[in-house]
Amino acid sequence: MSLYQATASAPVNIACIKYWGKRDTALILPTNSSLSVTLDQDHLRSTTTSRADASFTKDTLWLNGKEEVIKPGGRTAVCIEELRRLRKVAEDANSNEPKISSFKLHIASYNNFPTAAGLASSAAGFAALVSSIAQLYSLDKVLSASQLSLIARQGSGSACRSLMGGFVAWQAGQLADGSDSLAVQVAPREHWPEMHALICVVSDAKKGTSSTSGMQRTVETSPLLQHRINHVVPQRMKDITAAIQARDFPTFARLTMQDSNQFHAVCLDTEPPIFYMNDVSRALVQLVVEYNRAAGEVRAAYTYDAGPNCVIYVLQKHVKEIANLVVRFFPLAETFKDPFALFASEKIGELAVPEGFNSAVVASFPAGSVKGLIHTRVGDGPRKITDDAVHLLDAQGQPKPV
Amino acid sequence: MSLYQATASAPVNIACIKYWGKRDTALILPTNSSLSVTLDQDHLRSTTTSRADASFTKDTLWLNGKEEVIKPGGRTAVCIEELRRLRKVAEDANSNEPKISSFKLHIASYNNFPTAAGLASSAAGFAALVSSIAQLYSLDKVLSASQLSLIARQGSGSACRSLMGGFVAWQAGQLADGSDSLAVQVAPREHWPEMHALICVVSDAKKGTSSTSGMQRTVETSPLLQHRINHVVPQRMKDITAAIQARDFPTFARLTMQDSNQFHAVCLDTEPPIFYMNDVSRALVQLVVEYNRAAGEVRAAYTYDAGPNCVIYVLQKHVKEIANLVVRFFPLAETFKDPFALFASEKIGELAVPEGFNSAVVASFPAGSVKGLIHTRVGDGPRKITDDAVHLLDAQGQPKPV
Q1: What confidence category does residue A326 fall into, taking pLDDT thresholds of 50, 70 and 90?
Q2: Superfamily of chain region A195-377
Q3: pLDDT by residue (tens digit) across A205-226?
Q4: What share of chain B is helix, strand, coil (3-state, %, to 5)?
Q5: Any idea which architecture B4-188 has in CATH?
Q6: Which residues of chain A from 209 to 228 reach within 8 Å of chain B, CB to CB?
Q7: Neighboring chain A residues of B363 at a CB cutoff of 8 Å
Q8: Domain A4-188+386-390 of CATH type 3.30.230.10
């Protein structure tokens, strides 16, 4: 008897040109295009195992070992049903294909980073879910990553950008059915492998507004959002694409910072206003701005999503300098574990500040205000996992202990 | 021998529709119109004594007892010279007028509120300076407040709005020479005397970007500012003027909050971004938003200028409720001295929260995060002070001890 099972992992992505606002909330069609960098799954990933079996009585999903309700018509159900429909088409066309589309699914998913880190776990999660079911159904052999991104998009908008590696654009599209609202790769990771990222995990007492409800409030109430959508983002998409193609870091970095600022500006222009950055986030902006000023060139770019965490894009050659500054001004609550071992012989935070850096401009905060620091880089797209030890379901189709 | 001297006091004003950006930095011509409420001089004021005397050897200014350099061609010098020129015209036209325009001036100015409070002291200061010299030169008898506002505007833009009481618009104007960029009264204080204001003085470790340099950085770098100037503010000016005329507090309040939000949004859209609100400011926003939500109507409006202080506009009948909430969630560092004695028999901060108010949404901060609370209301325009005890210069033309 065959075991119909597949395991995939998928990466996190962090946008440089931000997605904020839907023109269709059911299909998850955005008001503007966006662009992100896919981060390396060696460090941050969602892993999902999907199994189809005649003995299963209902589609069941476990996230980090905990069962999650699959709401009929909800986002997870929509993704599963669309993949199942495509499998059925393939089965009907080829009688040799086992009829597994009629089986229920058991799906187990696991993030190797804490949810509390405030990283967009739903993007990696839906990308891994769609990738694993597509592999299980052998759809990955006939559908491109862009085609699969159409499905992941309906799970969580930004998940579509985690369907490929490198530098990825989510084209807003124009069609009412959303069939042109998909991800395309602007450049693979190999084009610019020196692109590294430092994630500064910022403590925050309060849970902010969810991005799903927040972005629609912005669409409904911000007078500035329409100007951003129609007159700012289109040009920025062109400009950052060109910067990536030319490996022009200063231009890439300036556009990234400008767009992070503008995303938070339209949040503030919302009624009532939405705040995601806190005083520590602001101080990290000051640190990056001062670092670039002192260097006489733009060497680092901050960007903030719907939370206080700061992601700093920086070329490999400058990671050490900026990482040292972050830890020097914001002593971490957690030990920094660097996969690149940049500080093998030295202690992070104890190196001198760069020449000309004015420490007085960075507001000081208690130790632990930045909880942790994650060092990663541009990465590849979803992976097919064949190592049996990684599969997340046991022989009975139940999730293994996490 | 005559003593040529006059003393004037002038009020603070706090904008509801914000001024941010100059189209002409020398003449101080704004990129958009703005509108403010003049606050009561009984509580907050700048007082200035100006004296002309043949014995004086140079124009000299003291602020709070400390001599300030009057830079040739600088803003103070421009105001003085324009008033002197107008005096000279009057003297030339009427030979009975004493020829005091040829005398140097001694000017002493005093704010009755701490500079550290972060209130726009330059607005009240320049309004008092222009008013006192205009009185000394008898120009106040021939020039309207709007005409004098043209002069005060060149000292500090928002000072033009302190030249009159009540609700005051600064019309941006269109002429290159600035002769149509002046203040006009939308309504006197008597029209809506129930309009009260609570100023929450927020502690801030860091001095932010000066508004003079900040606003020009926004003009130069914010893609959203032009949309605000051309498409948002003109309608808001009409709408808030109508709301004031109709005494429609909810509309007045919503526009005030929206425009505060948008001002800080364009600051954030600046490169590098400008932040004036801090975490305590944000928590005060949450408090006001929750207060309005629980009340089922808009009873209070927050507004923030170029600093973390929160000014809350609220009708007299609701001051007690919101003042109690502020102090309950933000225990003050300083004792609250209420000129209206609203809490005569009760203790501020110890009354119950309003029905339905969800305390959980207001982030909590250490006591003293809001340093002090000032309760005032809409007030009148500059006053002529005849009480000898108030004059700020002694017999020798030196500032009296402050």
Answers
A1: very high
A2: GHMP kinase, C-terminal domain (3.30.70.890)
A3: 666 788 889 999 999 999 999 9
A4: 40, 20, 40
A5: 2-Layer Sandwich (3.30)
A6: 223-224, 227-228
A7: 205-206
A8: yes
